[in-house]
Amino acid sequence: MDNQTRTTTLPSGRIATLRRGRGRDLIKAHRAVAANPEPIAVSFALIAELALIDGRPIVYEDLLAMELNDVLALEAEVMEERRENFPEATDPR
After folding, report:
1. What angle do CA 56, 15, 20 make, to 5 degrees?
2. How much is the pTM?
């Protein structure tokens, strides 16, 4: 594993490998769900872009069928990456 990916064990015991996201991944996620009015759809599509589950790629529909605890764990992992990309601002005073 390099600094571009990280691996975590999901609550179900499945292994998720997530790669560090890029702007193009967010664009692809938006395009994948352009006709879907659900606000969470982009988040699910982004997870699908960035994650492998048990070494295999997943699609948006796979997330819809996953156990909720696994979905929430994946979402937390992707949002943690977001915090790495955008560290908290410090007060310059």
Report:
1. 75
2. 0.80
Question: What's 89's DSSP letter?
Answer: P
Q: Which residues does 66 contact at the CB level (< 8 Å), separation at least 6? A: 74
CA angle 67, 51, 1 (to 5 degrees): 125
**Tens digit of pLDDT for each residue in 59-90?**
999 999 999 999 999 999 988 755 555 455 55
How open is the CA angle 82-88-93, to the nearest 5 degrees? Answer: 165
Residues in contact with 72: Cβ distance below 8 Å, sequence separation at least 6, in sequence order? none
Half-sphere exposure of 2 (CA within 13 A, CB side): 3
Beta bridge partners of 16: 8, 53
Averaged over 48-67, what is the pLDDT? 96
Q: Is 8 exposed, middle or buried (0-12, 13-18, 19+ CB in 10 A)?
A: middle
Q: Where are the domains of the chain?
A: 11-84
